[in-house]
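User: Predict the complex.
Assistant: Input components as received:
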Amino acid sequence: MKYILMMNTMRAGESVPNWPAKDLQAHIAFMLNLNKTLRESGELVSAEGLAFPDQARLVRAGKNGTPITDGVFPEGKEFLAGFWIVQVDTPERAYTIAARVSAAPGPGGVPLNMLIEVRQVMSGPPPEMS
Amino acid sequence: MKYILMMTGTKADFDWYAKWSKRDLQAQLAFMHSFTRELKDSGVLVATEGLGFPDQGKLVRAAADGTPITDGVFPESKEFLAGYWIVDVETPEHAYRLAARVSAGPGPKDRGNQPIEVRPVMSGPPPEML
């Protein structure tokens, strides 16, 4: 089964965190190392990091189908910072990996214990829809 | 450049979607399939996924000892990712045009064009984090 692990940690106006360079580097090194471990165990399907919220646009089709773009989001909106898709046998394994991500080091190397949203990725539409 | 096109909705949006008539659901699925095929054929599709419904979502946080603490309660206003496309295109405008196509996808008669969030996908961490 495929699961997606989502870091919904960014808010509007946020950019690179204001941490000492050493702490930023340790955070990135942790993430790169986790990706490597998941790749080697054969569990990693994909991992992506998204640009900061200032580059996000909401796009809606106008009457004639042309895009209308807007850069204003509701204040409390959670922005997806990045995600992993893993192929695992049980949801518990996905939660264990999510807990690893959650404990990524922050300022001073202290685990961030971020909230990670975990949901199954579908291989196709539910049978009742097709 | 790579861009992600995200379809999101609140729990209420998903509940409403689950009540669409079979004909409306099938028309929407047919549209999604043909849109994805067109992206694939034109060589811009990097990846696309559809996620499970929000009731399958869990929030995971690492406890002090690193074990996962899972929780299935989300704020009512939370926007859940329903699915995404990652496309590799030359300009943001091209990504916005594709997003407008998704925005105007078919649905029940009273449905307006839905907003699609578009953001660049990074090929790696920002240079200041390395």
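Chain A touches chain B through 59 residues (CB under 8 Å).
Let me know if you want any component modeled separately.
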